[in-house]
Amino acid sequence: MKIFIASVNLRKSGESIPLIVHKNRNFILKLSVVNGLFLVLLSVALLFIFPQKAKNMASGFKTPILYFEFIHTEKEVKLFFENGDPFISDMDRGNQLDFLFMLVYNSFLFFIIYYRLKLGAARKVIFLGILPFFTLIFDFLENLQLLGLSSAFRKQGDMKPALEYLKIFTHLKWGSLTLLFAAFSFLFFDQYKKKSIPILVLKWNGVFSFVLFLFIVFERSFFNELLGFMVAIEFLFLWIYLLFELKHSVPFESRGA
User: Is the distance from CB of 45 to CB of 203 less than 8 angstroms?
Assistant: First the structure.
């Protein structure tokens, strides 16, 4: 990382103010924006691939893939897959594409952390860069269990091991993701002096997402759907935030994290 330092002499004040310009900061910002666009396009693609309606879901659930992630018993799996072979095939195709999706959204989060560090965020927050890697691992392992359940259903095999691991990896994935969002709220977006709509949304949405996750750990309900919506909002507004950053010649005024 090359840093170029220029000095501007303010004759009126008699002071010399150093302007520190990070050569690759704008490159990281542009890369993050492009990554975010790819994330949006993949999200739209998954909406068309995953089934949007299904019968035999638990109370409070409206989204089939979200219910599948939080499914509990072998009986529930069998009832869920009574929606038919085309339904199961669409679920499998969506989960297969999700392997690419998880790479994209976690790299997006990593680039945001890196960009914030380039803006002068305290080095102590560098540990946040680890969380996207954990989320990626947990999401990957969760997907293997989901594909394993559909395979076991077709072969009339034992679903219990996959169900047990699914519960663990699903909660770890959502937990690490919402923990990262909450950290964003406190360490990044709580520091801005000027409040814009994207900043206000990102400041509070991350905190509420993590609190909501704590509720669903103990009981699945409509809160699961609400959490899925809030996570989608977080990603959307993170991308909007980056677009605002790209639009301005200098970043939003900040004290740093």
Answer: no
How sure is the predictor about 116, in pLDDT bands with cuts at 50, 70 and 90?
A: confident
DSSP 8-state class, residue 32: H
Question: Could you tell me if residue 127 is inside a domain?
Answer: yes
Q: What is the mean pLDDT of residues 133-161?
A: 96
What DSSP string runs through 80-146? Answer: HGGG-HHHHHHHHHHHHHHHHHHHHHHHHHHHHHHHHHHTT--GGGGGGGGHHHHHHHHHHHHHHHH
Which amino acid belongs to residue 28? I
Average pLDDT of the residues of the chain: 85
Nearest 10 degrees: CA dihedral of 229, 145, 104, 61? -10
* CB environment 2-17: b (16+ within 10 A), e (fewer): eeeeeeeeeeeeeeee
Return the pLDDT at 88. Answer: 96
Residue closest to 233 by CA, chosen among 183, 181, 187: 181
Greatest distance between any 2 Cα atoms in the chain: 82
Half-sphere exposure for 219 (CA within 13 Å, toward CB): 4
| Residue 135: inside a domain | yes
Q: What is the pLDDT of residues 80-91, one digit of tens each?
A: 999 999 999 999
Domain total in the chain: 1
The residue segments making up the domain with residue 239 are 25-247
The residue among 63, 146, 61 whose CA lies nearest residue 99 is: 146
Is position 140 within any domain? yes
As a whole number of angstroms, the distance between CA 257 and CA 222 comes to: 34
Lowest mean pLDDT among 44-58, 168-182, 184-198, 206-220: 184-198
Residue 13 lies in a domain: no
